[in-house]
DNA sequence: TTGAAAGCGCTAACAG
DNA sequence: CTGTTAGCGCTTTCAA
């Protein structure tokens, strides 16, 4: 049997309430008493049982984190930001991979709710009606990180993907590129698909080159799909002299796809990526990319969640972090 | 107030014990009764409280995972293997980053024990005496993943790092390379430092080139340190014509460090990495590397932990998974 | 096949 | 400043 608060009380010659008070740092304890209790705790090697505490207090100091895939370099960085801030506020994290599978996501939320988490941080792709229903029914706060909610009625932390993509493509066109191609994520994905694509499209339309759907290759976030996308695009009659990729990993694929068939980056074709993961510096030429502050998105969303959990006032429910460009050697400007 | 097992019992006209039985799939319930209960659960939207269950049953179906840094591509892959198997066995994961800091590691173990996890999966660097003490005192099983325990008295899952490094360097020497250099991790690190280094050293000594400490650069796992290491090594009078790096990330740094000063890989200098992370294919030339099955190490260690938690018999407490070489374009053989 | 009742270890009024 | 007393929601004997 493990030693309990009751054992400590007996050992120290006080009531369990007093032990509870010193364990929880309640100031209403005479120093001498506190010392007796502390000594007893030390002597018995007492370790409070967080489960019992959770049952009695209805707080577990644990938050659920639903993430598409922790082995993705992008989400792993986000997770690190989340965990750091959680630790700072004394929360632990229950981490689950969803593979962006709707049934799994809903199931995971329910599992976490059973475990009585104090809040949930959700990262995913599309927020369907069913997601919205589930979120609404949740007895604890839920915050979205790097995940768009069409109705903007959920608390969330993002950057403006549409604008960021628009900016990146505009840079290219302003620098004199006549035809810019794109390797996008699946268009059903609101972030890496639709938003970034629409930013690209808008820049094409407004800046003169016009939109040509042949210049768009749809990838699946992988390096390999970037590689294939590049080869498809440069195989065109009127092939692009710059390619914008929706993620850094695909951008690396694009660069190597280009190089593998003898094209030079950036001389023949310029390349811009998105995210500024560590990959961007691990390639030659180094990658010009849109900086998405992944760690910060994780950190800020966790901070936001703590505010909800503490019932603090929050002024901005929907926060958009700034993005910017990191110019490296895969572009000529 | 949330609905409890008691509400369901009243609604279904049975006792809470019966509700508990159907919730837990106990077969000793008449089908008709079961149906009544299930209907009541459905109607009330009842969701069992895992915290209360944990307190009563002394099982939380949660395991603690201590990892140096989830944003590392290597550990993220490992974590994915862990989580997948945990999910398969209906466990959830509490994930914490330790940054390989001893105090943090010990502290985290205690936090997890307070939370009454059913087991702990530990990834770290050095296992000190203090670690061993803490592990020994744990009331729940602990398994090490990709982490060496000098005394081999803890259950663990690894590959044979020494042998793997020896094999890689031997390949180079057998292929005619006269001088092989190495970029190692910190030598205090038993895995990425000492074991791999000693494998390298042994191959040098046994295969003829002899060991020359000038040929060794100590990195810190980062891409950047690989880059610097390479430049240091090729600056030598009698510079190496092949470099073995203790991790893929450092190997990418080595390749680019070489290329940045005009050397060709593999014509001028061959390069071999370690781990076979996804990075190995995201570089030109693609990287020849030692395959360490990260996902599998995670999966197998979690499986091993489930056996301990279920008090099943385990035949192999210390498991060594096989390693092999993946030959790509950064070597000439 | 079902119910009654005793905890699991702790928090949180409430009293004194 | 300290102790008493109810629970928190569930599992688990033990009887019936």
TrEMBL record, chains A, B:
Keyword annotations of the record: Activator, DNA-binding, Repressor, Transcription, Transcription regulation
Pfam families: LacI, Peripla_BP_3
Entry keyword Repressor: yes
Domain (HTH lacI-type): residue spans on this chain: 3-57
Coiled-coil stretches noted in the UniProt entry, renumbered to this chain: none
A single GO molecular function term of this UniProt record: DNA-binding transcription factor activity
CDD domains tied to this protein: HTH_LacI, PBP1_CcpA
PANTHER family, A to Z: ARABINOSE METABOLISM TRANSCRIPTIONAL REPRESSOR, LACI-RELATED TRANSCRIPTIONAL REPRESSOR
Function: Global transcriptional regulator of carbon catabolite repression (CCR) and carbon catabolite activation (CCA), which ensures optimal energy usage under diverse conditions.
Designated name of the protein: Catabolite control protein A
Native source species: Salibacterium salarium
Taxonomy of the source species: Bacteria, Bacillati, Bacillota, Bacilli, Bacillales
Gene of this entry: ccpA
